[in-house]
Amino acid sequence: MVCLGNICRSPLAQGILEKYAPNDWVIDSAGTSGWHADERPDTRSILTAKERGINIDQQRSRTVTIADFEDFDILFAMDSSNYSNLIQLAPSQAAKQKVRLILNESYPGENRQVPDPYTGGQQGFTEVYALLDEAIQSFLKTH
Ligand code: 4NP
Fold first, then answer.
1. What is the pLDDT of residues 96-109, one digit of tens each?
2. Ligand 1 atom closest to Cα of 4?
3. Confidence at 11, pLDDT banded by 50, 70, 90
4. Going by C-beta distance under 8 Å and a sequence separation of 6 or more, which residues neighbour residue 72?
5. Strand partners for 45
6. Over pLDDT 70: what percentage of the chain?
7. pTM for the whole thing?
């Protein structure tokens, strides 16, 4: 799960997928920037998750790396900026094919974006949670 800062959207996506996925899946999140390295998720993401029974307190922000293309089968981008950053970083054609926009799981082919909630209020995080939950439930139905 990849966003820009790895403190707002992708930690929520990681927490939701960890809650519903089979136990043997390896799930992680990262940011394309290193701006918040080693920080906890944003308090608004922590609260949004907690209200829905998901604890993301223990997550720490990190930057996405080339190794992630080897370690993971799918890299989900939250928006088209994350998507193009991942495509640029991808070391091979096979690696590029692992990159997907997450809302294409729930809205196939529409290339919808998970809006960046960082500069807004709590409501933005509630909306992000709902979009991610919907996308992840759709993804899990087919995997
Ligand atoms: P995220 O949100 O990419 O969902 O983690 C952001 C977090 C921090 C910043 C931007 C977006 N920032 O500019 O520091």
1. 999 999 999 999 99
2. 3
3. very high
4. 26, 28, 98
5. none
6. 100
7. 0.98
Phi-psi region of 82 (alpha: psi -120 to 50; beta: other; left: phi over 0): alpha
pLDDT tens-digit profile of 36-66? 999 999 999 999 999 999 999 999 999 999 9
116 tagged catalytic: yes
Q: How far is the CA of 32 from the centre of ligand 1 (A)?
A: 10
Give, for 31, the enclosing helix (H) or strand (E).
strand 30-31
CA separation for the pair 134, 61 (Å, rounded): 24
Catalytic site includes residue 8: no
Domain ranges of the chain: 2-142
Q: How far apart are CA 91 and CA 10, in angstroms?
A: 22
Instruction: Provide CATH code, domain 2-142.
Output: 3.40.50.2300
Please pick, among 8, 9, 42, 133, the residue that the annotation labels catalytic: 9
Instruction: Extract the tokens encoding 6.
Output: 């790895």
Pocket residues for ligand 1 (CB within 6 Å)?
3-9, 35, 116, 118
Q: Annotated catalytic, 60?
A: no
